[in-house]
Amino acid sequence: MKPKKNTPENGKIPQKSRLRENIEAILFAIVLALFIRTFVIQAFKIPSGSMKETLLVGDHILVNKFIYGVKLPFLQKTIIPVTEPDRGDIVVFKFPKDPKKDFIKRVVGITGDQIVIKDKKVYVNGELEEEKHIMHMDSNIFPAQYSRRDNLESVTVPPDSIFVMGDNRDNSHDGRFWGFVDLKAVKGQAFIIYWSWDKNNFGVRWGRIGHILR
Questions:
Q1: Nearest Cα to Cα of residue 162 among 78, 62, 91, 79
Q2: CB 35: neighbour CB atoms within 10 A?
Q3: Which structural domains are found in the chain, ordered by start?
Q4: Catalytic pick from 52, 65, 94, 105?
Q5: Tag placement on the chain: N or C end, fewer CB within 10 Å?
Q6: How confident is residue 14, by pLDDT bands cut at 50, 70 and 90?
Q7: Is 65 designated active site?
Q8: Residue 105 annotated to the active site
């Protein structure tokens, strides 16, 4: 008599091999991680002090990529719009002068806004901005003919663009020097610090972990 095969009819269903199950689980985890990284949340590390004191060198942040809509990878075309960056948002974007680099700055102006800087003070549409989050480390004020750092003649944010600046105003390479950011280049909004490492003191900044960014 031939041995019976394990079939649904005889009540015994063939079981997958443990190796196959492990491979399928790993592949699923990889696909899920790639999906989340591409469309939902991505982690970034802060490499410079241009956003002090809001963000410090060594801060590790999470960026909400879904909040500004679902974009097709590589093409950066929005297929499911949600909302657009607003003044005060901290955004990660592709640097206009070198798209291979990611920059993080704060949105100061949106489409149609008129931006003027007078003696380090920022005016949007003629009104002085109350920027409690910024810092100045240099008391010197440079005239507009020498630098755009402290004085910037009126500029208007073009359609589908934003104007960004770093919170560390005296030490930030931002829109004052290279212009505007196309909305297509915006990757997402930074919303939380999940880890912070102080390499100078070789220690964890425990008090910064879990800090919600505003």
A1: 91
A2: 10
A3: 42-208 (2.10.109.10)
A4: 105
A5: N
A6: low
A7: no
A8: yes
